[in-house]
Design brief:
The protein is of the alpha/beta class. The chain has a domain of about 170 residues: Acetylglutamate kinase-like (Carbamate kinase), CATH 3.40.1160.10. Helices cover about 35% and strands about 25% of the residues.
Length: about 400
């Protein structure tokens, strides 16, 4: 059985005509000889509308009930798509996340998949049915409906592809693939024919909205080739796959993220164990931290800054203010006016001077860097939010990412 998994995002199933278009693509794949499992998101901006409705009811929606509410959108998509496929003469069976055997932990609104019991999906495929699965959702080990967080349908699709032994996973979206940066900011940005798993993971984690970071991690661990392509044009997209060192460019992409805020605890006593206390307490609240910086100690005290999603900044502030009181710190400041610009490239680990060139490109535009973090294939800088577009253009131009060839070592 040659299995493939196809995932269609919200814009792809936004309305009857688009659902019919998806059905035709799915049926074409089935008639090409594949056993097809389809994962779909909620139509259009339905999830956002449901979130807004919840907050019209209460300022603090209970996470369990939010999951119950938000899981409804995908159910609409799977039922309508199943009808459309059957109208074209193929058998189709729809499954909720629970029916598809997607078992998660009990972290409501951002659950993690712990197991997939895909017996019902496999049985449908063996019977010649197209299996249509609700993305973004599952059932917890405590038998509650859970959701996987933003972009969770990508995770559902890649995890199912791994479990089903699929040849590849196609992610259909409203863009034509993965670009060297956001084409809305840099029209000259190039569509990449392929990206390595590790590069795509860094891109997803630093603001690229094409794929969810957890889906890329699943793909990397289980070696699932992922094809990112447009729902609306037939062109080849971008393959996320294992890439040899010979194929990897020095620099692959520039990403940006405006979704974070900076939290600073002022005048924290500078003694062993303080950082563990601060970030251990934050972790207990299931709040994800990105960048961290601690200033040089002065007069026995120091400032600790970190970045956190704006969606979680209110809780982060509440927790850190309590910590500040316990430690005798001066106070907590929150700065929502930041952005993160990142340079990604697997080749930079063997090419010195990349960071210096990025910093120089920003300096030439008078853009101040407030925080820096690095990995072997990534450099991220926190800057003022209003400078984001200018910074992205400056770095993209400095490394000549509009050209087919990567920036050469001698030029860095």
């Amino acid at each position: 059985m040659r299995v493939i998994v196809q995932k269609f995002g919200g814009t792809s199933v936004d309305g009857a005509e688009r659902i019919k278009n998806v059905a035709r693509r799915v049926v074409d794949a089935k008639r090409a000889g594949y056993s097809v499992c389809v994962v779909v998101s909620a139509p259009g901006d339905m999830t956002d509308k449901l979130v807004d409705m919840a907050y019209e009811i209460t300022d603090s929606p209970p996470p369990r009930e939010m999951d119950m509410l938000l899981s409804t959108g995908e159910r609409i998509s799977i039922a309508l798509l199943s009808m459309a496929v059957q109208k074209l003469g193929e058998q189709a069976t729809s499954f909720t996340g629970s029916q598809a055997g997607i078992i998660t932990d009990s972290s409501h609104t951002k659950a993690r998949i712990v197991e997939i019991k895909a017996d019902r999906v496999l049985d449908a495929l063996k019977r010649g049915c197209i299996a249509i699965v609700a993305g973004f959702q599952g059932v917890s080990t405590e038998k509650d409906v859970t959701t996987l967080g933003r972009g969770g349908s990508d995770t559902t699709a890649v995890a199912l592809a791994a479990r089903l032994g699929a040849e590849f996973c196609e992610i259909y979206t409203d863009v034509e693939g993965v670009f060297t940066t956001d084409p809305r900011i840099v029209p000259e940005a190039r569509k990449l024919p392929y990206v390595s798993y590790e590069e795509m993971l860094e891109m997803a984690a630093t603001g690229a909205r094409v794929l969810n970071a957890r889906s890329v991690e699943f793909a990397r661990v289980y070696r699932v080739p992922v094809h990112v392509r447009s729902s609306f044009v037939p062109d080849e997209g971008t393959w996320v796959k294992e890439v040899s060192e010979m194929e990897q460019p020095v620099i692959t992409a520039v990403t940006y993220d405006k979704s974070e805020a900076k939290v600073t605890i002022r005048k924290v006593p500078d003694r062993p164990g303080i950082a563990a206390k601060v970030f251990g307490t934050i972790a207990e609240e299931n709040i994800n931290i990105d960048m961290i910086i601690q200033n040089i100690s002065e007069d026995g005290s120091t400032d600790i800054s970190f970045t956190v999603s704006k969606d979680e900044v209110a809780r982060a502030r509440e927790v850190t203010e309590q910590i500040a009181r316990e430690l005798g710190a001066k106070g907590v400041e929150v700065d929502p006016g930041i952005a993160k610009v990142s340079l990604i490239g697997a080749g930079m680990r063997t090419h010195p001077g990349v960071a210096a060139k990025m910093f120089d490109a920003l300096a030439r535009k008078g853009i101040n860097i407030e925080m820096i973090t690095t990995s072997p294939i990534k450099i991220s800088c926190v800057i003022r939010e209003e400078k984001t577009e200018e910074a992205v253009r400056a770095v993209h131009d400095a490394f000549e990412l509009d050209k087919d060839q990567a920036y050469e070592e001698k030029e860095i």
